[in-house]
Structures are given as C-alpha cells and as structure tokens.
Amino acid sequence: MARPRIKDVARHAGVSEKTVSNVINDYAHVSDRTRRVVREAIEQLGYRVNLAGRHLRRGRTGIIALVVPELDIPYFAELARHVIREAEQRSLTVLIHQSGADRDHELAALAGFGSTFVDGIILSPLALTADDLRDRVGAPPTVLLGELLEEGADHVAIDNERAAREATAHLIGLGRRAVLAVGGRDDAGLGTAEARTRGYRAALSEAGIAYDPSALLPVDSFRMPDGAAAVARALREGARPDALLCLNDQLALGALRALHEHGVRVPEDVAVIGFDDVEGGRFSVPTLSTVAPDKAAVAKVAVQLLQHRIEEATAPEGGSEGAESGSLSPQDRIVAHRLVLRESTEGRERH
C-alpha cells in the first residue's frame, strides 16, 4: 500500500493541501474544527510528515552533532539524553560524536567533519584553544559547552568558579579546615578544572585558610580509578584531610572507595563533595553530596541557541525564518546550579 501523501489527507478531510500544511506546522490562524478534522484524517490515514524533505527545502539536513570528550562519563551520557529529548521536540536528529579530548578530533568536529551533513554542532571542548575558534568561515554554527574559550563564541555553562567556591565554603562551614581538591589544577588555563580550582582557592582565602599547593591532588583523567589512586597516594604520603572537594562525581566516587579501604570514615573523619550530580552518587554508600548543574537547562539553552544560529545561517536574504529579525550577538549563557547535600557531608540527605 502506497504511503499516504498530504493531498490524500486533504481529500479525506475535505480541505485544501495548504490547510493541511498549516495544521501540520501548527499555524494559529486555523479554526479548532478544521484543525480537529485534519488531525483525525492524519491519524486515520497514518500520514507521517516527511521531515527530510522539509529540511532539504530549507537548505538543511535536520541533523545536529553533539560532541563530547567521553560517552562513558555519566555526566556526558546524561547530558546527551537531555539534548536528544530537546532536539526531538524541534524535529531535529542528534549525531553523537566522541572526541576523546583529542585536539584533532575536536578540530574536525569544529569544521563540520569535512562534510555538509550536519546543520550545527554542540561541542564540549577540552583540547581546543581560543585561536582554534577564530577564522571559521564556512564552518557550521557551533555552540560551546563548558568554560568560555573565546569571547566571540556562543557558550552555555554553569558558573564553575562560583559553584566550587560555594561547595568549598560549605565544607569549611562544617568546621573542616584541611580541604584537599581532587583533580585540582593550579594554572591559569581556561578549562573547567582550572575554574573550579580558582573557586576552591577563593573560598579558602575568604575563610582565612592559607593555600597549600600540595592540597591539589592531580589526576590523569576524571574517572573513578583516578580519584581512588590520587586519594590513596595522598594518604600513604601522610596527608590528613578532613574534607575533599572532588572536581567531578567520578573522582568523588573513587575517593570514597580509597577512604573506605584506608579505614577513614565519611563524613565523620572526612567530608566529601563532588560535581555533576550523576545517578551513581545517589546510590553510593554513603550517598554523595554534589554540585548539581541543571543539565536539562544546559541542553535546552544550547539547542535553542543552535537552532537560532542555523535558521540565521540558512535564511533567505532579509531575515531568518522562525527567528527574531536581526543577527543575534554571540551569547554567553550561564545556567543555574545548586548544592545537593547528602550523607557524604551531612551524615544524612538534606534538600
């Protein structure tokens, strides 16, 4: 049986093809009765909108790319789920690409993978520099996640420095003075770890606690084994912390294991807080206090902004379809975060 077409729906509903199109595109100037009749005809005939044809007529593919460093890091997996959900509501398909935090892979993504099959890119860069983002003539519209590398780029993130300052201040407010930063990086870099380390140091300064560079526990990557190894090494070398600020939840979960193996009680002896509010932290023993970014909001703002850029780039001369008139200046969008306090700092969960 042939797939029903828009003219079949129009004939079945007794309206014009233009009216069917108006209903499909949810135009306001259609009566409730006509809208109901057309939707009933669509349902009865099993008509499906040809999204590929619609996108191609607009000079688009309807595909966007989400590029993250590692898919098996829970934060990025959870973020991807939110991006896909948001994109589906806008009839967009998401291609997910893993960069491995490799600069060549991130540059390839930034250039649209040497093809025109993606309309735009949401990119979480770890290896790129500000220079890499300049002179991108002909490249697809791109929205960056994480720390801002270039003032002229669209960007969505939480305020990582402020969030780390608040988390560290919370630990200090519990009476903890020997706070180690697992994954901390003491340099002037532009990355997320550097921003969180600056927040950690600011909180120490505000509390009158002298900063000791040895309180930063470096890691090769932000995974559970790295957190466990860094904390175990510090304990073997004689460190006696009473709190740990871990720069993501994976490091924090690894730290909990190392503390347990060394007979250190959490939170009685050492309070632990992480970042990202991943699902595993709600089921660890003890449950993990964390900085919770609004991942749904990050996804929503990033997809909205990227869609606007795509419409702007593919609109005919004189304005962008479906967008406000005029070119949108580069956007730096900061999304909310909150402290979620659980057993690893409080001994109980507190909202």
Average residue-wise pLDDT: 88
Question: What amount of the residues lies in strands?
Answer: 5-15%
Main sheet: strands, sense, barrel: 6 strands, parallel
Globally, the shape reads elongated
Classify the secondary structure makeup into a structural class: alpha/beta
Contiguous uncertain segments of 5+ residues: 318-326
Number of strands: 12
Radius of gyration: 25 Å
Strand neighbour order, sheet with most strands: 2-1-3-4-5-11
Succession of helices and strands: HHHHEHEHEEEHEHEHEHEEHEEH
Spatial separation of the terminal alpha carbons: 57 Å
Q: What level of helicity do the residues show?
A: 25-40%
Protein architecture, described:
Helix 1 (6-13) crosses helix 3 (32-45), helix 2 (17-24) packs across helix 3 and helix 7 (160-173) runs parallel beside helix 8 (192-206). The chain has twelve helices and twelve strands. The strands form two sheets. The chain has a six-stranded parallel sheet, with helices on both faces. The chain is an alpha/beta fold and 351 residues long.
Please describe the topology of this protein:
Elements: H1 6-13, H2 17-24, H3 32-45, H4 51-57, E1 63-68, H5 74-88, E2 93-98, H6 103-110, E3 120-123, E4 142-145, E5 154-157, H7 160-173, E6 179-182, H8 192-206, E7 216-217, H9 224-236, E8 243-246, H10 249-261, E9 271-275, E10 289-293, H11 295-314, E11 332-334, E12 337-340, H12 343-346
Parallel strand pairs: 1-2, 1-3, 3-4, 4-5, 5-11, 6-7, 6-8, 8-9, 9-10
Antiparallel strand pairs: 10-12
